[in-house]
């Protein structure tokens, strides 16, 4: 039977976060890849889906330290299909999905799950962060229907990288046990005032609400 992640009491967790953030700030900067989002057209644009992937998001030392301390990271993707050729570009369709990476300290593994609607797909469990990062960078092809043939289109993709706050921890454990929807779709329990306050402080300590990356594909004509 799989062992769940370990939750820390809110005050203890806050102390852990403070130590992690201060330690990360004191480290010398290492060579890092700048995080970016890539979107590639398929061989048959308009018939097959584009391929979207986020590169280098775990290069941030703070994210790695927070993962090791029990704070998962969520990547929320949105890809949009736009048509061109008129006075204005028109939004013709979109797709959204989430990828969550969490560290299990008991098993010493990183777990990555992709969620599309109500369907969860385990992308794997990995023994080190480099393996987890390679798995996190695998491309995904969202399903977006082309509404009209012969028109010019392009895709616009966006991903928000969000370190999940203290109030998410219990929900992430429930999600990893099979009750995944509240943790990734924002349908969280009200929680206590203390938990909400610590969660807001946590987000400020790690540098804001999250990192957002964007990319746009070349324009193509739907056959």
What is the fold's blueprint, element by element?
Layout: H1 10-26, E1 36-40, E2 51-55, H2 61-68, E3 73-84, E4 90-104, E5 109-116, E6 119-126, H3 129-136, E7 152-163, H4 169-176, H5 181-185, H6 193-205, E8 211-216, E9 220-221
Antiparallel strand pairs: 1-2, 3-4, 3-7, 4-5, 5-6, 7-8, 7-9
Helix pairs in contact: 1-2, 1-6
Helix content: 25-40%
Beta-strand percentage? 25-35%
What is the overall pLDDT average? 76
| Oligomeric state of the chains present here | single chain
How would you characterize the largest beta sheet?
Answer: 7 strands, antiparallel
Straight-line N-to-C gap: 51 Å
β-strand number: 9
Low-confidence stretches: 1-30, 180-208
* Rounded radius of gyration (Å): 19 Å
Count of runs of 4 or more consecutive helical residues: 6
Net shape? elongated
Order of helices and strands: HEEHEEEEHEHHHEE
Structural class: alpha+beta
Task: Describe this structure as you would to a colleague.
With 223 residues, the chain is of the alpha+beta class. Helix content is 26%, strand content 33%. It has helices at 10-26, 61-68, 129-136, 169-176, 181-185, 193-205, and strands at 36-40, 51-55, 73-84, 90-104, 109-116, 119-126, 152-163, 211-216, 220-221. The strands form two sheets. Strands 3, 4, 5, 6, 7, 8 and 9 form a seven-stranded antiparallel sheet that branches. Strands 1-2 form a two-stranded antiparallel ribbon. A hairpin with a 2-residue loop joins β5 and β6. α1 (10-26) packs antiparallel against α2 (61-68). The longest helix has 17 residues, at 10-26. Mean pLDDT is 76; it is low at 1-30 and 180-208.
